[in-house]
UniProtKB/TrEMBL annotation:
PANTHER family, per database record: CYTOSKELETON PROTEIN RODZ (PTHR34475:SF1), PTHR34475
Protein name stated in the entry: DUF4115 domain-containing protein
Residue ranges of every copy of the Cytoskeleton protein RodZ-like C-terminal domain listed in the record: 216-286
Cited InterPro entries: Bact_Cytoskel_RodZ, Lambda_DNA-bd_dom_sf, RodZ-like_C
UniProt xrefs under Gene3D superfamilies: lambda repressor-like DNA-binding domains (1.10.260.40)
Annotated region (Disordered), positions in chain: 170-209
UniProt biased composition (Low complexity): 170-186
Organism: Caldimonas caldifontis
Gene Ontology molecular-function annotations: DNA binding
Amino acid sequence: MTEELHTPATGTASAGQMIRAARTAQGVHIAALAASIKVSVRKLEALEADRFEELPDATFARALAQTVCRSLKIDPAPVLALLPAPGSVSQLEQVSRGLNQPFRDPADARNGFVGLGFLRRPTVWGPLLLVAGAVVLWSVPSSTWQSLLGRDAEVAAPGVTVEVVPLDPSASANAPASPASEVVSAGQAPSTDAPNPATEGASQAPASAAASAPVVVRTSGESWVEIQDARGRMLVSRLLAPGEELELDGAFPMRVRIGNADGTELRVRGEVFDMAPFRRENVARFDIR
């Protein structure tokens, strides 16, 4: 059994007008027709309005028109005769996508509209992320980076504690040689070792310098000496030559750093100060009171 095809009235009507007239005569809404043949309403509207430049190409327009005629059961020959011939130049050449190809309104391009789909490309958002990261790094104050990355030179190495060395203010300058102080170190028992023979011999040195200054530094070799008093005043901070002697006076407690402990002698109120408990790789750090 063959279907009866109705021949649309041609007259002076265009191909799009013939299709619209046949559809309205049968009472078919354009949206229902688009759904039945699985094509967008815009493409049908472009076909019925003879806006063939909005369709992919002439082949697509003829295929769409033939599909519509078949759905409306009208003869496609008169309609196809009024359509552009296959192979004519068009804006797009995407026949392989078929009738379900997404439609892009050319008016968007004419109005300067640009889609945001390009933002999904790594070549676009990758440099944007790098620029954003550089802006964030540039906006961070330099003091913050120094606090995060820098190390305070005043902080002792891990495992080295700061010792408090109390001294008796009434100690005599001519008192017998004895341990200069009682060392209190966190996590470390007070030292009970016998006095160093070397320091015993050094304690017999004349006490004239000790009488004039509470702290005396003597060096037998090059040594970096840094002493700061309780008021924050730097009494000395330089490299001492061999045989050099310094007499220092300042507020106690004093923070001391000796770069060559083996080649440096420190006398506090006339007594030789034993730096052995505070020595680490020939560098001594301690406080004296």
